[in-house]
Amino acid sequence: MRRYGRRRRLIAAALAAIAVAAAFVATRPAPGSTVLVAARDLSPGPLRPDDLHPTPLHHPPAGAIRAAAAGRVLAAPMRKGEPLTDVRLLDSFRLPPGLIATPVRIADAATAGLISPGSTITVLAAWDDGQPARSIAEGVRVITIPPATEHTSAHGALVVLATTASQATELAAAQAGGHLSITISPNLE
Question: What is the pTM of this model?
């Protein structure tokens, strides 16, 4: 009787080990595909060949970029190791109907460091002739902030906004004769 009890325990242990091995094989991720990931923290702007490197991922996100992306423009910051997807690229960005991309220069270049693509801002204009500052474009979304150059601090920071055609006209007129600044709205979405 004791012999049969031992055999049953051995058989039960063997069956349990087989079940664990089968579960491991069944839940093991399938071999993934190779996608491009950030080699380091990246700022918006043109991508260089050494900004990204290919990495195999078991579950790549939808829209993951698998081919070379050097020369394309990154629309938003990326963290090191984050996969590059099509929605991160400026040339993949689609403006809603009725909006256009409008580049403007913000007088205080340091202010551009407070916003990022997706931020909602209001653009204000001030003139040197003593007119009071006024709002030119309210609730506009930042599309991208091109990388700063050595001339940025002297001429302000370039910011590309999603605006209506009439807001673009107002912004052009205001920056031709005045200085632009911004207020930042909280993104509550």
Answer: 0.57
